[in-house]
Request: fold
Amino acid sequence: MTKHLPKGQGAPSDGRDTNRDGQPIRHLTETAKTLIVYFSRSGNTESQAQLAQQFLRADSYELTVAQPYPSDYRASVDRATREREAQDWPELCMTDFPNLNQYNLILLGHPIWAMTPANPMRQFLIQFGDQLGHKRVASFSTNAGYGSGDTQQVLAQLTPAGTVILPNYSVHDVHLEQTTSDFQRWLTQTKES
Ligand SMILES: Cc1cc2nc3c(=O)[nH]c(=O)nc-3n(C[C@H](O)[C@H](O)[C@H](O)COP(=O)(O)O)c2cc1C
Reply:
């Protein structure tokens, strides 16, 4: 279970989402046509990803970074800012990443950091974005009340022409629990679009 400590800007990491102690989520089958790829530092996006995985019976793959972000919020912001300013994105651990040929819909789950997808998701798109051509791709994100920033532009920049970028979904993290049905509606629309 994801631990829900106080949310919002400053949501602390429970240390498990960055997998200091536990194993990253790998829910992979040979038949699913939807893959959820997500990163979560402090558990909010992970709870959305779990909901999506169960609701759509999708495959799910959690991104983790070689050097986990600190559980201290301020220290994480400082590190994320340094990475962004230097365009020196974090190294991902990509064990068991599936062959994307199996999937026609890829859902990308991530927090919003500095009004853009969190650094590990950007690194994922830099490494794997060229494999998303001709697929349907949609982002879902959690934020501290400031929306999804330039998420749609980043997806467009880091995927090839021909990628179908669907409308995204972003939720203020303090409203996660009472917006489950909105998220499910978005998931249904996204799957059927
Ligand atoms: C480094 C960092 C930067 C953040 N920047 C923003 C921001 O620009 N806008 C915003 O609304 N929330 C921002 N947040 C808050 C997170 O997006 C929000 O708490 C999110 O739900 C965390 O998701 P997670 O628990 O899956 O890691 C930031 C959080 C961190 C750690």
In short: The chain has one domain: 26-192.
